[in-house]
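Support request from a user on the community tier.

User writes: "When I paste my structure tokens into the form, the page sometimes reloads and wipes my input. The last time it worked, I copied everything first. Here is what I submitted, just in case something in the input itself triggers the reload:"
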């Protein structure tokens, strides 16, 4: 049995992932405890609303329990497994919900807890959870008579532990189509084929990567979708100190910052489109999710989901704004203005994604935290009011009795 997880903040992403039947096969919401919500999305919104009164960013803890393909747990065993993990993580009694996925005959469960202690309004510690996962797995294997799974934490293991990509990088890859593991494999190969830092930089450039100086890291690379990666994290089997030594012949101060590198990427993408005679606002034959060889990434693919009218409106808005300030003649945009137009298109798309087929912006989507909190408080108030009304009516009926006149309701 394998258990993994961690504290998270991306409730909207997890709501989509946990309920996605196309990717996860059968999806079943097995349990909701300590929450008023009746759906996965509503449960995340409720947890976020609770956390809005704290300084906690990662307001929930997500874990998944994965038995082997041929192992089946009874409902009672699943509940015992969740309860034991909850106890070991120090999350006893916290609001939680459980989602079961079955894909190609294999069953696993996701458990999500709120990390916010309602009495102290502080987040419960999420330190050293990897060892807790391991210890819980071993205990459950022993209790349920399951096959033993080798631990990746024990000393003297006969295989080197491969550092997995960050969760946020894997989440991002679902939009961009660029798997961080594929990036790591390619960058590692380029690293070993180069005999100096400068040769490595040239190889990166040849394969569509841009090297930048990080704000908190020594070096960062921008991939073919315009997203950033820590260079040391994408070179397998190499430590940051080794990267620093090899890159000693590269003047770090001469490299662009991450923001500047991303601007270079977008400007180059616009130039490639112009060279092919394509309008950045128009659609193309590229299917959503397809990766082109020229480096156009997720942003361009997302732009193509807008209608032609919406794209023209976004471009015209930028042109009109700049023409009004005397920046440029309408209809003639330079690279910076094209970038601003692309950003305007992306902003318009984010709004359009929340508009349903009925033309209505659905309640709760795209709201800031304080609006989520207001919605949550309103729901709690309405439910409390209904409960009080019901209790009062029961009291009135009891007071009246058979044929009784009842109390003075005006009081």
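"...and here is what came back when it finally went through:"
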């Amino acid at each position: 049995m394998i258990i993994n997880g961690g504290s998270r903040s991306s409730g909207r992403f997890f709501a989509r992932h946990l309920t996605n039947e196309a990717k996860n096969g059968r999806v079943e919401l097995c349990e909701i405890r300590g929450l008023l919500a009746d759906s996965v999305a509503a449960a995340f919104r409720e947890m976020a609303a609770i956390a809005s009164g704290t300084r906690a960013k990662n307001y929930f803890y997500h874990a998944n329990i994965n038995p082997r393909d041929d192992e089946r747990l009874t409902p009672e065993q699943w509940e015992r497994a969740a309860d034991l993990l909850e106890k070991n993580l120090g999350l006893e009694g916290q609001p939680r919900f459980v989602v079961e996925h079955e894909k190609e005959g294999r069953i696993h469960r996701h458990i999500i807890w709120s990390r916010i202690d309602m009495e102290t309004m502080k987040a419960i510690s999420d330190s050293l959870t990897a060892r807790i996962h391991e210890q819980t797995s071993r205990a459950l294997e022993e209790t349920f008579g399951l096959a033993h799974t080798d631990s990746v934490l024990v000393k003297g293991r006969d295989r080197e532990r491969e550092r997995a990509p960050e969760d946020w990088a894997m989440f991002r890859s679902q939009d961009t189509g660029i798997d961080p593991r594929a990036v790591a494999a390619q960058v590692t190969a380029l690293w070993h084929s180069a005999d100096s830092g400068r040769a490595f930089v040239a190889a990166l450039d040849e394969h569509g990567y841009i090297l930048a100086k990080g704000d908190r890291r020594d070096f960062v690379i921008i991939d073919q979708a315009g997203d950033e990666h820590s260079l040391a994290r994408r070179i397998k089997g190499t430590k940051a100190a080794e990267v620093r030594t090899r890159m000693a012949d590269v003047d770090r101060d001469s490299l662009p910052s991450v923001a500047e590198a991303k601007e270079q990427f977008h400007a180059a993408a616009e130039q490639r489109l112009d060279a092919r005679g394509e309008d950045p606002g128009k659609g193309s034959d590229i299917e959503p999710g397809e990766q082109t060889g020229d480096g156009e990434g997720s942003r361009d693919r997302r732009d193509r989901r807008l209608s032609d009218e919406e794209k023209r409106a976004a471009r015209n808005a930028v042109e009109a704004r700049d023409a009004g300030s005397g920046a440029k003649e309408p209809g003639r945009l330079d690279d910076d203005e094209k970038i601003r137009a692309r950003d305007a298109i992306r902003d318009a798309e984010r709004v359009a994604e929340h508009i349903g087929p009925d033309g209505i912006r659905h309640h709760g989507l795209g709201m800031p935290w304080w609006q989520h909190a207001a919605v949550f408080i309103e729901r709690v108030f309405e439910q409390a009011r209904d409960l009080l009304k019901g209790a009062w009516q029961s009291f009135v009926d009891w007071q009246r009795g058979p044929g009784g006149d009842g109390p003075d309701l005006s009081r």
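Agent notes: The reload is a front-end session timeout and is unrelated to the input. The mean pLDDT is 75. The chain is about 45% helix and 15% strand. Escalated to web team.
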